Structure formats: structure tokens, C-alpha cells
Amino acid sequence: ERTVVLITGCSSGIGLGLAVRLASDLSRRFKVYATMRDLAKKERLLASVRGCHAGTLEILQLDVTDPLSLAAAAQQVLEQHVDVLVCNAGVGLMGPLETCSHQAMKTIFDVNVFGTIGTIQAFLPSMKRRKAGKIIVSSSVGALQGIPFNAVYCASKFAVEGLCESLAVTLQQFNVHVTLIECGPVNTSFLANLQSTAAEGSALQGLDPQTRALYSQYLQHCQSLFHDVAQDTEEVLQVFLEAICAPCPPLRSFTTQFFMPLARLKLTSPDGSEYVRAMHKFVFSAGEAQGDRA
Ligand code: NAD
User: Fold this and answer.
1) Is 73 domain-assigned?
2) Contact indicator for 17, 237 with CB cutoff of 8 Å
3) Which of 61, 109, 204, 237 is most buried (most C-beta within 10 Å)?
4) Is 140 in the pocket of ligand 1 (CB under 6 A)?
């Protein structure tokens, strides 16, 4: 009996990689429903599996922000129950808060928060009925700690942490496991796909010079961080695979230890002051010794 896995956001990045990896599994352990908002983007996925997916891959349209699309996908799949639901679709938003448009912020919350909730709602009832299932969520270091100039993205990812941690408590009784995969920077098209307020040059021009200078410092930091510590998708996929295959995966699984020292400050200094200081230093004191960076 194959493990049925449904993944959202499979046209690129982690979702694409995971769908390919599972559908091409040599022992054919998985049946993958790779879903994407826009089926016109399915060529990359098809090219990557190149024929080794007979019976292991199906591609479905699914826009996580569209309730009709969610209902249609759920109906197509539910005759064959979903063992593992991977809520992966997500978008970033970067820029000084004053420059984030209402529409951009709404999109981020629609995809990252309401999209994840809607996806879980569509598949949870059948998991509860069967008293079995796994819900795996692409989460982020930015879901656990605030990152400058990513305030709205972090707000949306923090929301998902609260959602999943809350659900995990009751879902224990239903043998449904919720796992947040905490990714640091990953080499995907995430940076290219994110909404950046810098694209609207005029928004930045109205900004005070100090914030503008900090933002440009942040962008340099971000570039070198991706250069120095970004993980390859394959490395991250390994962590997803472990969660998919483990009998009882934990609530959180980290793809990298790099941000642990910063994350721990929340526990050792609950009032947050040490975190704020350390993150400021991490981002805005470029050129200091490597050892000071985390
Ligand atoms: P990506 O941009 O390649 O993938 C995101 C996918 O979500 C895209 O395929 C996009 O089409 C899809 N998507 C967007 N809106 C959608 C919608 N309404 N319905 C369905 N699909 C939609 O980037 P990625 O790095 O593969 O991101 C995957 C997940 O990992 C995201 O949730 C992201 O927040 C998280 N993450 C990424 C990084 C990173 O550095 N790449 C770090 C931490 C967390």
C-alpha cells in the first residue's frame, strides 16, 4: 500500500523538489498528488520526473487561496485518502513596513495563513475519521524569531506556528501528527518570487534616510547570508522525508542548527531584550568576526 502524499506549491522550489523525490522513489513507496496554482507551470515537474512516475504522480490544480479550488482538489483525492498533507505554498514580503501596501500584506496572509488553514481544513476531517495522518508544514526561522524588514512575512509565519502548535495538542488523540519544518535560507526561487517593496522605487523614496540606509544594509546582509549559509533544496528535502517516514514525527524539525543560538535567547532572556540586541548585531554589524555572527 503506497503512502499518499499531497503537496501544495509544486511549481518550484521545495514543493517541486519534494514531489520529484517522492514520485521517483525507487521502491515506489509513494503516490504523490503534486498540486500547483497554475497548471501551465507543470512542465518543470514533468521534465524532472522524466518517465519514472508511472502510477506515482498526479498533478492537480490547487490555489490555496481559492475555496472552490481547494474543495475540488479535496474531492478528487479523497476517494483515495491522503496519508501525508504537505502545506508548502508560501510567499515572502520584504521591505520597510511603511512601504508594504495593504494589497501585498493581504496576499501574504491569504497564501501563508488562510491558505494553510484552508488546506488543513479540507483534509483534516478524513484524517480524523481514519485516525491517521500527517500534516507537514514548510515553516521558517522567520516563524520563530523576528527578522528586520520581514515583519509581515514573520507575522504570517508566526501565525502558522500558533495554528499548528494548537492543533497538535488535540490531534494527538486522533493519531494525526503535525510537523513544522523550520527552514533557514534555502536556494530556491523564493527570493525571486517574494514581493519586494523595493520594486516600487517610489515607496522607498518617501522613506526617511535612516530607514533607507538600514534597509540597504539589510539587503547586503541578506545577500551574504544566502551566499554563506543557504542550504540546497536536496538537504532540506531530507528533513521532509524523515518527517514523512517517521512513525511519530515531532512538532518541530530544524533543517539547520545555524540559527539556534539566536533562537535560544528567547528562552534564556524571555523579556526579548537580548534577542533584539543580538539580531541587531547579527544584521547590522557587517565585517565583525564570523564568531560574532550568530
Ligand atoms: P518558491 O517560491 O519556489 O515556492 C513557493 C511555491 O508556492 C511556488 O511554487 C508558488 O507558486 C506557490 N504558491 C504561491 N501562492 C500560491 C497559491 N495561492 N496557491 C498555491 N501555490 C502557491 O519558494 P520555496 O523556497 O520553495 O518556498 C516553499 C515554502 O518554504 C514557503 O512556504 C516558504 O515560506 C518556505 N521557506 C522558504 C525559505 C527559503 O529561503 N527558500 C526559507 C524558509 C521557509
Assistant:
1) yes
2) yes
3) 237
4) yes
| Ligand 1 centroid distance, CA of 13 (Å) | 7
Is residue 93 one of the residues assigned to a domain? yes
Count of CA atoms in the C-beta half-sphere (13 A) of 202: 1
ipTM for this prediction? 0.99
Active site residue 153: yes
Number of domains in the chain: 1
For residue 68, give the CATH number of its domain.
3.40.50.720
Along the 294 residues of the chain, how does pLDDT read in single tens digits?
A: 899 999 999 999 999 999 999 999 999 999 999 999 999 999 999 999 887 667 899 999 999 999 999 999 999 997 778 999 999 999 999 999 999 999 999 999 999 999 999 999 999 999 999 999 999 999 999 999 999 999 999 999 999 999 999 999 999 999 999 999 999 999 988 888 887 776 556 778 889 999 999 999 999 999 999 999 999 999 999 999 999 999 999 999 999 999 999 999 999 999 999 999 999 999 999 655 444 444
**C-alpha cell of residue 14:** 521545495
Q: Tell me if 181 is assigned to some domain.
A: yes
Beta-carbon contacts of residue 176 (< 8 Å; ≥ 6 apart): 124, 127, 128, 131, 132, 133, 134, 135
Q: Whose CA is nearest to atom 23 of ligand 1?
A: 190
